[in-house]
């Protein structure tokens, strides 16, 4: 018994000695670190002293937390020893995972702590969390930051889930775990959304090398692609597919059959390239659709669907354009804050989370481009030129531009008159150029006139952003004049087709009378005569003719754009690249050099191409599909051409406000392109033997027919009252007044916002001035204190010398 008691005493004494040794070692290390910190020389700068104070505070917190963890570990060892003594025969099951074992250990440790210690541990966890969030801004070396971050994360993960109140610890740990998983899910979801944005990385790469002005074009192209996807879905799903699946098949009626005269050449490539032959008599164009009120077993209302889809696409386009303009205005309403611009760009531009070399190269190019943009903005804000010479050159440039516009308008008018003469004489007697002369001349003018405008704009010496807007306005005027000249020519062609249609009506009555009178005797009971649909005479169908013209114009414009891209950019870049070493002068910096990306010409090409889609989609439902294919190919082809064949502009500028300027021009062209379509729908009667509205006086009569047959009488009366011109005009007047009121209030809010911003800037400058004065005053007081201290020390030394001298006297 005595031996056992002695051995137990020895074991307890040995345990106590070990714990005391651990505590002594820990205190020695902390004392050594403190002595080292004391021996370090003090820094002179106030910022560095503050940084040392913060680091010392953090070290103290870390020391306190380490002491707490040591206590917790000691108590844990004591508990383990007690458990081993009490239950040596019990078996312990292995833990399922490392995370659960850590939580169980933390919970076991926390179970032996007092409430005061738990509160201290919670405060320590909160401090570690704050340290993790603010660690990036600490003035410490990166190695120290990484060590402290790792230790803090381990400490938080170990004790955060176990901290709770009584029995709710497991629930609290579960909540913390689910919160972390939810945050990770949200972060992954945002990354997935970013990855799902089409062509996002391509546009970011282009923006990093060429600036935001070139990237704004590709963002605008992507936006147009989304709009055309909606238009294609409406026309394809509600017009083309129902007619192809539920309508009468090809060859069942004259409007769906190629005439006998055209059957021999209906499959020729030249005919199909001009969208004639079998392409003309298909669901691609207006004339193929039947005027039957309900088709198929679903009783699908084809004429009503055709009319509502045509109106709905235009209404949707208006809504989306105006909504996008409003959103851009809200985003750009605050303006650009240019205070300390270069300092912010120098110290905060780099992203330290980048781990991919290619991404790092793009970020480096992006920072360089942003510095170029900022330098151009600063130079333009400080530029001071001769105002009289500048005004003279700008007036001269505008005069030259007006001459170019007048010449292009006259050329288009001359070509249209020639095409009308060719149409009267018969296009079969002329070649390919005479048949497509109008389209080719318009495409060539749209290709070369912007280059001429770009040369003329060098005389004006505008800011690059303002120069781009002037260039866009001039090209807009050019394209608009060309487009409306083309529309006037189409109106003349429509009148000719209608006159021809009247002649065909008379000939059809004569043909029918001769057919029945010459072949069927009177009082005969024979079956009626059946004529093949290909042999039945038919009208010219001016709606299909209009749709064909717009499709040809789109195709010719697309081919001209791609050929210009390949010849003007790719072959030029190849010649400059491979002939530069064996040429008489430097081809890269002289003539011809690498080409720059023409933002204005490409943007206006997109806008007017979309205007033609809106104008012609009612007569050719295939136009949204063709435009969707064109935009898809253009995105890849132009991205490749920009990165491989073009060079950045000499004066890179920031494209602030350009997106809204693009939208404003798109809204104008949308309004101008819907006017001819509305005029033809309202005023011109449809063809008598083709299209879903054949046999009606006007195309919109399908609405009145639907109200009379498919709705009760009271609903048609309400609709007629609501469509009263007096009520409509009063509603429009109220709408205009509301728009004016909202615009005026938005202007006042914007002005107040700018004034408030100026006040804040002046207040900030005043605070800086006060702080500077306070710092100077403190520095002066410090110098005075130093001088006073030196004087006191000198007087003390003098007093000491005098006392020594007095003591040496006999």
Overview of this protein structure:
With 810 residues, this protein is mostly helical. Helix content is 74%, strand content 0%. It has 23 helices and 2 strands. The protein has helices spanning 2-39, 46-86, 98-110, 115-134, 142-159, 169-196, 200-210, 212-246, 269-273, 302-331, 341-348, 357-382, 387-425, 432-435, 437-456, 464-519, 542-579, 599-616, 623-645, 658-683, 701-710, 713-722, 725-808, and strands spanning 595-596, 646-647. Strands 1-2 form a two-stranded parallel sheet. Helix 4 runs antiparallel to helix 5 and helix 16 packs parallel to helix 18. The model is unreliable at 36-47 and 85-100 (pLDDT under 50). Residues 1-105, 787-810 are annotated as: Disordered. Keywords: Coiled coil, Membrane, Transmembrane, Transmembrane helix. It is a multi-pass membrane protein. It holds the Pfam family TMC. Residues 541-656 form the TMC domain.
């Amino acid at each position: 018994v005595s031996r056992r008691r002695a051995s137990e005493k020895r074991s307890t004494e040995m345990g106590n000695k070990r714990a005391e040794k651990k505590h002594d070692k820990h205190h020695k290390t902390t004392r050594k670190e403190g002595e080292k910190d004391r021996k370090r020389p003090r820094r002179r700068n106030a910022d560095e002293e503050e940084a040392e104070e913060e680091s010392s505070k953090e070290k103290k917190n870390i020391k306190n937390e380490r002491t707490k963890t040591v206590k917790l570990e000691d108590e844990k060892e004591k508990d383990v020893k007690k458990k081993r003594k009490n239950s040596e025969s019990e078996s312990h099951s292995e833990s399922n995972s490392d995370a659960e074992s850590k939580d169980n250990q933390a919970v076991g440790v926390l179970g032996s702590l007092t409430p005061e210690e738990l509160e201290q541990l919670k405060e320590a966890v909160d401090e570690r969390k704050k340290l993790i969030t603010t660690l990036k801004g600490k003035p410490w070396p990166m190695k120290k930051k990484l060590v402290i971050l790792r230790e803090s994360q381990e400490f938080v993960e170990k004790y955060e889930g176990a901290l709770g109140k009584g029995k709710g610890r497991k629930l609290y740990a579960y909540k913390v775990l689910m919160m972390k998983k939810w945050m990770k899910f949200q972060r992954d979801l945002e990354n997935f959304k970013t990855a799902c944005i089409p062509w996002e990385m391509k546009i970011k790469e282009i923006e990093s090398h060429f600036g935001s002005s070139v990237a704004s074009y590709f963002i605008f192209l992507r936006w147009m692609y989304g709009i055309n996807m909606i238009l294609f879905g409406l026309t394809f799903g509600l017009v083309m597919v129902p007619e192809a699946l539920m309508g009468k098949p090809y060859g069942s009626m004259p409007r769906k059959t190629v005439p006998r005269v055209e059957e021999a050449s209906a499959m020729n490539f030249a005919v199909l390239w001009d969208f004639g032959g079998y392409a003309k008599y298909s669901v691609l164009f207006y004339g193929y659709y039947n005027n039957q009120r309900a088709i198929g077993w679903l009783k699908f209302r084809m004429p009503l669907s055709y009319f509502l889809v045509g109106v709905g696409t235009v209404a949707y386009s208006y809504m989306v354009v105006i909504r996008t303009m409003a959103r851009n205005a809200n985003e750009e309403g605050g303006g650009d804050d240019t205070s300390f611009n270069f300092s912010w760009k120098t110290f905060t531009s780099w992203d330290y989370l980048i781990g991919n070399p290619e991404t790092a190269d793009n970020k480096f190019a992006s920072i360089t481009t942003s510095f170029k943009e900022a330098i151009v903005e600063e130079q333009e804000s400080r530029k001071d030129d001769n105002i009289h010479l500048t005004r003279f050159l700008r007036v001269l440039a505008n005069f030259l531009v007006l001459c170019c516009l007048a010449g292009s308008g006259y050329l288009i008018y001359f070509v249209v008159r020639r095409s009308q003469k060719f149409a009267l004489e018969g296009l079969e007697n002329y070649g390919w150029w005479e048949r497509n002369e109008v389209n080719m001349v318009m495409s060539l003018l749209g290709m070369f006139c912007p280059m001429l405008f770009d040369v003329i704009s060098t005389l004006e010496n505008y800011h690059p952003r303002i120069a781009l807007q002037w260039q866009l306005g001039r090209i807009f005027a050019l394209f608009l004049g060309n487009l409306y000249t083309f529309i006037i020519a189409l109106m003349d062609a429509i009148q000719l087709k209608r006159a021809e249609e009247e002649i065909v009506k008379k000939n059809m009555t004569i043909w029918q009378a001769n057919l029945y009178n010459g072949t069927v005797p009177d009082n005969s009971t024979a079956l009626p005569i059946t004529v093949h649909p290909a042999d039945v005479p038919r009208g010219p169908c001016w709606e299909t003719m209009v749709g064909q013209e717009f499709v040809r114009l789109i195709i010719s414009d697309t081919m001209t754009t791609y050929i210009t891209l390949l010849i003007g950019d790719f072959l030029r870049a190849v010649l400059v690249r491979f002939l530069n070493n064996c040429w008489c002068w430097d081809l890269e910096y002289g003539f011809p050099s690498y080409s720059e990306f023409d933002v204005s010409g490409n943007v206006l090409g997109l806008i007017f191409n979309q205007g033609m889609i809106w104008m012609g989609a009612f007569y050719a439902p295939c136009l949204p599909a063709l435009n969707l294919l064109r935009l898809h190919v253009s995105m890849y082809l132009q991205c490749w051409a920009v990165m491989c064949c073009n060079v950045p502009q000499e004066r890179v500028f920031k494209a602030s406000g350009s997106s809204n300027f693009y939208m404003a021009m798109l809204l104008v062209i949308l309004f101008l392109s819907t006017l001819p379509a509305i005029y033809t729908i309202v005023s011109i009667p449809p063809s008598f033997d083709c299209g879903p509205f054949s046999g009606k006086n006007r195309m919109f009569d399908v609405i009145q027919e639907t109200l009379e047959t498919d709705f009760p009488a009271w609903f048609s009366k309400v609709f007629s009252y609501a469509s009263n011109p007096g009520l409509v005009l009063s509603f429009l007047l109220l709408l205009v007044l509301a728009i004016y009121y909202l615009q005026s209030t938005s202007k006042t809010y914007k002005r107040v916002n700018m004034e408030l911003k100026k006040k804040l800037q002046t207040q900030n400058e005043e605070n800086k001035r006060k702080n500077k004065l306070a710092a100077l005053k403190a520095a002066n007081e410090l110098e005075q204190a130093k001088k006073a201290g030196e004087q006191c020390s000198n007087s003390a030394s003098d007093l000491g010398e005098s006392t020594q001298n007095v003591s040496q006297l006999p």
